[in-house]
Amino acid sequence: MSNIEAYGYKANYFEEEIDGAVPARVTAVHRERFEIVSENGTGHAKLKPGVYYNETEQMFPTAGDFVLVVLNEHGDSQIVKTGKRKSCFVRKDPDPSAPLEQVVAANFDYVFIMSSLNNDLNYKRLDRYLALAWQSGATPVILLNKADLAQDWQEAVNETSEMAPGVDVVAISAKTGEGIDALEKYLQRGSTVVFLGSSGVGKSSLVNSLEGQTVMAVNDIREDDSKGRHTTTHRQLVMLSCGAIVIDTPGMRELGMWDAAEGVVQTFSDIEAYFEDCKFGDCSHMGEPGCAVQRALESGQISQERWDSYLKLMRENKYIEEKSEFIKGKREKGKQISKYARDIKKHGKNYRNRVY
Question: CA neighbours within 13 Å on the CB side: how many for 170?
């Protein structure tokens, strides 16, 4: 089983085995078809309909997931179970017709949040990435790319470190290799890193630089407006020659919050530290006497921009949580109605008087 173990597999991902099924890891997602690696090498697989489309609680796989697969040497294998996740990156599904969560990647140790040392360096966007990264259960690391073009990248590192307490911030150049050595401690054999960042920020270029050869197509940011085009078009997992594994994701223009209250708290731990010093335990920090947050805002210890970012993400997360509960309630009611209709069809009109 050397292949799957090299990809980070451990026996505790599955509480129970399934006869005839072997463990595999999802290395890429293409709509309803998955690329996998198992003890038999690489291949393709699809979900078993009776397991995943029959109102079960089975999690739909994503890049990085460990799954149990019934192998097929003459066609697509069949995924029959998704293993438990030690970490996962979740965002609000950008599709308005599917207003629920979207799991982008799973089972990683670090989140490399990439930004470019030009107009792409947006601290409000970094706040959002950090909140979801902390919520994932992995450790975030901020990479500031294009250090070779920045006149004073150390100042940007210092400013970013101030707004991201407890997070390593590394200036790098995917083009020249500057700062790349500092990433070795994260890229150990068997460890998995997920790359996050906006389009064209240099995620694919960094993977190529780490590997010393072109393994991903590159589309850099346009220097005149700092915009980029999507290079990675699907989530994919890549094994580096050093034995570390990276999960690249398409550049995401929309990164909606999803059940990330704990991540927001961790991201703004410097702000929440003031809450304990407020005069009232139920202080709303909106004008009450003795509010430590208001004092910190007035003295400049907390910037108004950072406070506004904190409030915005907390409000957005609360709205999403309430909307999610409403949608889940409607779905559960729909399941009960469907069950009621099936019972009437199966057992006759006597079931009409039963209470559901």
Answer: 21
Strand 77-82 relative to strand 66-70, pairing: antiparallel
Give the model confidence (pLDDT) of 215-256 as tens digits.
655 554 444 444 444 444 457 888 999 999 998 776 444 455
Closest CA to 171 of 114, 223, 256: 114
pLDDT digits (tens, 9 = 90+) for 276-298: 899 998 898 988 899 999 999 99
Q: How far apart are the first and last CA of the chain?
A: 48
Residue 35 to residues 22, 64, 122, 255, 306, Cα–Cα distance (Å): 15, 11, 34, 25, 41
Half-sphere exposure of 319 (CA within 13 A, CB side): 10
**pTM across the whole model:** 0.74
Residue 264 CB-half CA count within 13 A? 20
Count other Cβ atoms within 10 Å, centred on residue 28. 18
- The two beta strands, 41-47 and 77-82, are parallel
Whole-angstrom distance, CA of residue 208 vs CA of residue 211: 5
